[in-house]
Amino acid sequence: MKHVLVLGAGLVSRPLVEYLLKRENIQVTVASRTVSKAEDLVKGFSNGKAISLNVKNDALVEKLVQDCDVAISLLPYIFHVKIAKACLKHKKHLITTSYVSDAMKALDEEAKEAGILILNEIGLDPGIDHMSAMKIIDDVKKNGGKVVSFRSYCGGLPAMQNNNNPFGYKFSWSPRGVVMAGKNNGQFLENGKVVYIPSRDLFKYYEILDIENAGVFEAYTNRNAVPYKKIYGLDDAQTVFRGTLRNTGWCYTMKKVAELGIFDDSPRDDLKGLTYAQMIERLIGWGESIDIVEDAAQFLNLDPHSTVIKKLEWLGLFSDKMLPDENNVMDMFCHLLLEKLSMDENDLDLIVLYHNFIAEYSDRSEVITSTLVDTGIPSGDSAMSRTVSLPAAIATALILDEKINLTGVHIPVLPEIYEPVLEELEKMNIKFVDKVTKI
């Protein structure tokens, strides 16, 4: 019997653990800081085991890795290299759904020498986005064409029937990651020229995107897309863009939130014992306010009755609610987001992943679109948990079955990875609708 070690029992882990436990030839050990979460995941399966793990316990991490065939790290990304080094020592394969770091890339030769595969970015975004894009790019090349423009967009949102707050967004876990992403710079290739978007302008430059059978969204740049020209083998592409999807109204609201200084995560000692309204007073620096709504609107160059001000008022930024015990403005803001924009128990979420290619052939040009729309299962798994964790689970099973025999550090852009993973995802109704239109 093969043995899989799953490190972490967070909100995306359940579909992965269940997929592997349903295979009778696999023993799954789930290790989590909160052992009750791990116990819930393996409940009812004789081939499942839950244990308590503090990832700082090096000896236990080593022992768990030594006893497995494949380790799956669903821990925060900062721990992945530590787990990878243990896997190298004991010659065990490693799977993560996180972006591959430079420190992880540096382990490529060691992984090849050890005869192991360290597969990163095998989730949704990154993950399914890579695999579905490469499938079409490779198909175009096989048919004698070349991709001259590539645009890719992804978003996790509340399903339409549960889109019932003024922000058009909900969090199923800590919102800090989403807020932190709002501080990223953006970069992409447009008509042969590199376009750089500094973080201060991230929410200023967005487009309205109408995606067939999905909806109308705002789309803004997601990190640095330029390296994907090489990663995806887009030698002839003059445009390479990766974007994030949100419901309309998000970008302008977040731009104004950023202008207030709420994305600042530097430590502050001057906010203890204050209310949210008093914090806003400090941020705009106008002294004690008679009407904080009026003053904030003036500071942001908005009408006090504008939609953005109404949203921030609804959220509680101008309220007499006491600030939580945090040492920075960003985390205080995140408390409000978690309180007012959390997914309810019966809420469903929505995943939209959309690619747009322009392909040129000797006799024609085509626009190719590829769209994935997936909604959470009522009384079941969220679309986010399914699309993030199932690709990792499938890849793990393929490695154990010796259907993936690569070594070194990889992301899923090779056909021996993406073809069987996408095929298995389709069986679970996670599939793309492709459309070709001649230009």
Q: State Rg.
A: 23 Å
SS-based structural class? Answer: alpha/beta
Net shape:
globular
Number of strands: 16
Strand order of the largest sheet: 3-2-1-4-5-6-15
Total of DSSP H or I helical runs spanning 4+ residues: 16
Q: How far is the first residue's CA from the last residue's CA?
A: 54 Å
Domains, number: 3
Q: Round the mean pLDDT to the nearest integer and report it.
A: 96
- Shape-level CATH architecture of the largest domain: 3-Layer(aba) Sandwich
Residue windows where pLDDT falls under 50 for at least 5 positions: none
Spell out the CATH superfamily of the largest domain. Answer: NAD(P)-binding Rossmann-like Domain
SSE topology sketch:
Layout: E1 2-7, H1 13-21, E2 26-32, H2 35-42, E3 48-52, H3 58-66, E4 70-73, H4 80-90, E5 93-96, H5 102-105, H6 108-114, E6 117-119, H7 128-142, E7 146-158, H8 176-181, E8 186-190, E9 193-197, E10 206-211, E11 215-221, H9 228-231, E12 239-246, H10 250-259, H11 276-284, H12 292-299, H13 307-315, H14 329-340, E13 349-360, E14 365-375, H15 383-400, E15 408-410, H16 415-427, E16 433-438
Parallel strand pairs: 1-2, 1-4, 2-3, 4-5, 5-6, 6-15, 7-12
Antiparallel strand pairs: 7-13, 8-9, 10-11, 11-12, 13-14, 14-16
Helix pairs in contact: 1-15, 3-4, 7-16, 11-12, 15-16
